[in-house]
Amino acid sequence: MKTVLKADVLKRAVTGQWRSVTVASALGAAHQTGEAAVPLLIGVVIDEAVRTGASGRLALWIGVLAAVFVALSLSFRFSLRNGEKASHQAAHEVRSRLAARVLSADGGAAHGRLSGELANIATSDAQRVGQVNLALPIAFSAVVGVLVGAVALLRVSWVLGLLVLVAAPVLLGLAHVLGRPLERRSDAEQDRAALASGVAADLVAGLRALKGIGAEATASQRYRVTSRSSMEAAIRAARSRAWLDGSMLATTGVFLAIVALVGGHLAASGTITVGELVAAVGLAQFLLWPLSIFSWVNGLLAQGRASAARVAEVLAAPPTVPPGSSPLPPSVAGRVELDGVVSGSLRGVSLTAEPGELLGVVARDPADAVSLLAVLAREVDPDEGTVTLDGVPLSTVESAALRSAVLVAAHDADLFEGSVRENVEAGGDRVDEAMAAARVDDVARALPDGLDTAISARGRSLSGGQRQRVVLARALAAAPPVLVVHDPTTAVDAVTEVSLAAGIKRTRAGLTTVVVATSPALLAAADRVVFLASGVVVAAGAHADLVADDDYRLVVLS
């Protein structure tokens, strides 16, 4: 299966750029034909000058030679241009497919992989897959060069031509055999490099926390070990490449020496002329490039196959949950119901959020909140029970339609690199209303360029409270029929918390909202509150009534 998927990645990379690859191959073949013609023309010039001494014919052949060089220059330039174009465009398409798969509503592609590892696959591996489109025209040109050179040598001497025709397939087979270790080690090299990138990104993201607990030395040691493993894999791959190049260069050198010796013997015996000897030696030197290029091309193809396998693993990653196929009705009322849900730490939860209701959910155990959010976002399907939206089981709804109808905003959601305004606009169209509800105006006043202030990736340049408010505004701007927010006010002061609670209630009027939190201000604004303990619903009602319960009061007011 892995081999089939790898072949499909390579096939799509090539067929998607077949026009540029074809043009590059044709121009490359023309270039190699011209290169092979140069030694023959030089031999003709020498024979014409020696045999006749006619200056006019000599000038004619020199002019022909000059025209060939002009054609050589143009064909090489445009062949390389089209090959590079096909390479970069194929790499771009592979990156686009990877991004689409990672961002797919079905999920699953990032499971078990660090973000840095995915970035490495989308950059280095995608580039190596794209380079197959550069290797193929060059390989075709090399084959044409060998064939043209062999035919040209056949005209000079059938012995020399036959020697090339027999040796070329042998050299091609040898390059393939010698390239197998490089393919294996290139795969290992990319695996180690991706892991090192992932660990580095992971450490950078958690650097503040690491410093806070004094774990810098442990983290550094972890990266040092990973980086050394990556370096050793890269060295092994480089040794394989050096062995491949060196072996092929030595083999082709021996072969060309044999051609030169045979040609010299034929000239000495009078079988060929001086001009033909010069042409034969020139053709032998010309053949050095197409023969030696086989090892370079085989190296690119070996690396491309290894990278294609890694790309295929991401593209073929199974979805987190089985995809549904049913559409939602054009107008979603927003009634969410959990019936006997058993999942994670939940042990038979039944609750309902009515259309337009602001429902508060308090979980005594944080694990219950995490499990509840997972089933509402359909990151997992319940082991038992059902979760429905307007009576339709979430497990049957098409993923993209579900994501547009139900938005689960995690409390630790990341911001994008860009301005504050751009981050909120990424949510949807109700930007001004959302920013007012989340008090992003207060955030803007504290920043040098207000809403146009650029923030770093993941919003690390903002304080915790500022980041929470921008994340909340982005979720409110989306205005989905059902919005689930988790602890959106843990990093703000009490006054701001009350204001945010009022803003959420005002902005989400008429839309279903589930707030999973322990904030008294948010729960006081809710129409109804459900209290979870030990994985089940133990109480439900207004916040003002539930505070009489000792367990509830301990969780909310502690």
From TrEMBL:
Coiled coil: none annotated. The chain crosses the membrane at residues 58-80, 134-152, 158-178, 248-268, 280-301. It is found in: Cell membrane. Keywords: ATP-binding, Membrane, Nucleotide-binding, Transmembrane, Transmembrane helix. The lineage of its organism: Bacteria, Bacillati, Actinomycetota, Actinomycetes, Pseudonocardiales. Residues 23-303 form the ABC transmembrane type-1 domain. This is Putative ABC transport system ATP-binding protein. It comes from Saccharothrix carnea. PROSITE patterns: ABC_TM1F (PS50929), ABC_TRANSPORTER_1 (PS00211), ABC_TRANSPORTER_2 (PS50893). Residues 309-557 form the ABC transporter domain. GO terms for cellular component: plasma membrane. Gene3D superfamilies: ABC transporter type 1, transmembrane domain, P-loop containing nucleotide triphosphate hydrolases. It holds the Pfam family ABC_tran. One of its GO terms (molecular function) is ATP binding. It is a multi-pass membrane protein. The keyword Zinc-finger does not apply. The keyword Transmembrane helix applies.
